[in-house]
Amino acid sequence: MTSTTYTSGVFALETMDVPGGTETVLRGGRHLFPLLPQAFAGVRRIGVLGWGPQGRAQALNLRDSLAGTDIRVAVGLRPGSRSAADARTHGFTEEDGTLGDWLTVAADSDLVVLLIADAALAAHHPEIFAVLKPGAAIGLSHGFLLGHLRETGGEFPAGHPVIAVCPKGMGDSVRRLYQQGADVNGAGINSSFAVHADPDGRAVDLALGWSVALGSPYTFRTTLHSEYLSDIVGERAILLGAVHGIVETLYTRYRLAGDDEATAYERSCENVTGPIARTISHSGLRAVRDGLSPSGRETFDRAYTATYGPAREIVAEIYDEVADGTELRSVVLAERRLGARPMSEIGGSPMWGVGEKVRARRGERELPVEPFTAGVFVATMVAQIDEFAERGHPWSEIVNESVIEAVDSLLPYMHARDVAHMVDNCSRTARLGARRWGPRFQAACEQIAYPAAELPADESLVRAFVSHSAHEALAAAAKLRPSVDISVV
């Protein structure tokens, strides 16, 4: 089990009750911004390498939070990067030294935040490490590089703090909720943090300061290895791969049962990204079932108990392949094979052409929770929760990676754009994983879960769901949730 206890010389920490114990957490908010210079002691320049969704969001949030201090934020890009023009439109320029060559920016920075694409990081980290000034801190936002270094026998350079701050949401959510937080103190995306190397004893406060500056409502501790496992598994399971496979197969099921295209879309994709996600976000997992009629609960229970076992098997398989390096190797090999070529999109199946029509008629009525869809989706979410719990992840990490990131970051964007659009526009690592594992969830539903759902529910699984420890953990996390929902623009 990952230790979640830590102390800070800068910030006042809180203890959060979780199943079986407590966790130390930091409640964020803009009232903490005056403490940032103390947290960033010794840092006068932060270099953010990369301008993808996370790079853009983090550079902007850091710059805005540190306005009025003597700490500058610079963006480093590879020569010829097409992202330079967009960075300039957001106020980073060569003229004032806030935009430049990635190696130059890295060499001049006291904290170097590595947010370039995973494949590029795997290929070019030796060049970046070679130019770091003595004692400069290395910052990561997930553990892919650690996995790559372990796979290849590499190491982080000695004498440098190595920290991670990992927002539990996509880059667009990190920025959008931060902007909304200008009016609602603490609105943002929760983050985990990890300290992998701490040669001078300042790494915890540095990481916490980084998280506060990003706008995180609450920050919890993990390890870089644990974060890598939960992050990569989650992308392939409930956050992207599983949800895509689930809604595709549910749409087909409802069409075969006689629904027209729009109704089938509403009962599948629209239901997951709309009423099911909102219910979980505001009231928790159990509320999805509790809000149904008796006949709806019976349908939910049959779908839930039929889906849980097959979903758990796939999540366990994903976890094993991430843990032993198989998934990382598949990503690196795919990147080499694809090179600079664009990936084919998955949004070409017939159902995705229906989404625009459904979104256009949203104001006509309020969709109720579809019991069968809810049972399938919640069972898959709980399967991931249980796999993480069995593998020893801390509860904050479990509920953030399995529930909160889904319902408060990704699903709202999927509701606005559709699931396929989001899968086709996420990171290459996540896209590759979703494309590999989404069809596995789809096949498991069609071949195993749906036939079993014709039988009576397994009452022992229903009881296990109703009394699940995750409800307690989610309730504890909800106390730190800002009173704002993301507004997707």
From TrEMBL:
It comes from the Bacteria. PROSITE patterns: KARI_C, KARI_N. Keywords: Amino-acid biosynthesis, Branched-chain amino acid biosynthesis, Magnesium, Metal-binding, Oxidoreductase. Mg(2+) 1 binds at D231, E235. Residues 223-365 form the KARI C-terminal knotted domain. Residues 26-226 form the KARI N-terminal Rossmann domain. The keyword Iron does not apply. InterPro entries: 6-PGluconate_DH-like_C_sf, 6PGD_dom2, KARI, KARI_C, KARI_N, NAD(P)-bd_dom_sf. The keyword Amino-acid biosynthesis applies. Its cofactor is Mg(2+). Pathway: Amino-acid biosynthesis; L-valine biosynthesis; L-valine from pyruvate: step 2/4; Amino-acid biosynthesis; L-isoleucine biosynthesis; L-isoleucine from 2-oxobutanoate: step 2/4. Mg(2+) 2 binds at D231. Belongs to the ketol-acid reductoisomerase family. This is Acetohydroxy-acid isomeroreductase. It comes from Streptomyces doebereineriae.
